[in-house]
Amino acid sequence: MNKQKRIEMLTRLRANNPNPTTELEFNSSFELLIAVLLSAQATDVGVNKATRKLYAVANTPQAMLDLGLEGVRHYIKTIGLFNAKAENIIKTCTILVQQYGGEVPENREALEALPGVGRKTANVVLNTAFGWLKDNEGKYFIAVDTHIQRVANRTGYAKGKTVEETERNIIKLTPNKSEFMFNLHHWLILHGRYTCIARKPRCGSCLIEDLCEFKDKTDL
How far is CA 50 from CA 30, 92, 158, 213, in A? Predict the structure, then answer.
């Protein structure tokens, strides 16, 4: 995919959804952090069902600690890997209370040091909760998950065998970064979730089908 195709692809995605955002429900940076932590190997729908009940009783680090490990487990038991996630939530809340006064740090290194929080989660929090376009070093970033990995590779927008390589290539190849990078994560993830799905992509109803370089297109 060449530069002009990328510009056209992003222009169409923007026109279709000018102000995209995450489908995870949250009202604070802490709620988003916990929701993204829970979303690994889980759907946003499933996470939202759990966090609606969880946040009703505990939506701050201290309240989560007061709820305790077993209490957290109870509210997230419908989510995959809930035991490990509950432990990471308690450990993370302990750090937030002891080191950051109960606030979520607006810093990549601090976020990635939290139990259960990797680069993707940190990127989502920095972008969606704090409105970051660039990281601490002034470099553009994008959170790459399985949906974005699939869309970027399948369309030919930016290829990479790993999410790290795909992230680097998306940043390298995205034109007019100041115009498109802030919302790029949400455009690609939503496109992958509802149109460019894994098993049978809905190419026939895709607004960028003519730009896409996927060879095995469907009529769906």
Answer: 15, 18, 34, 38
C-beta of residue 111 within 8 angstroms of C-beta of residue 105: yes
Q: Tell me the whole-structure pTM to 2 decimals.
A: 0.91
Closest CA to 111 of 121, 101, 102: 121
> What mean pLDDT is predicted for residues 94-108?
97
Catalytic positions: 120, 145
**3-class SS of residue 218:** coil
Q: How many CA atoms lie within 13 A of 91 on its CB side?
A: 13
3-20+138-205: CATH topology is Endonuclease Iii, domain 2 (1.10.1670)
Q: 29-51 pLDDT, tens per residue?
A: 999 999 999 998 899 999 999 99
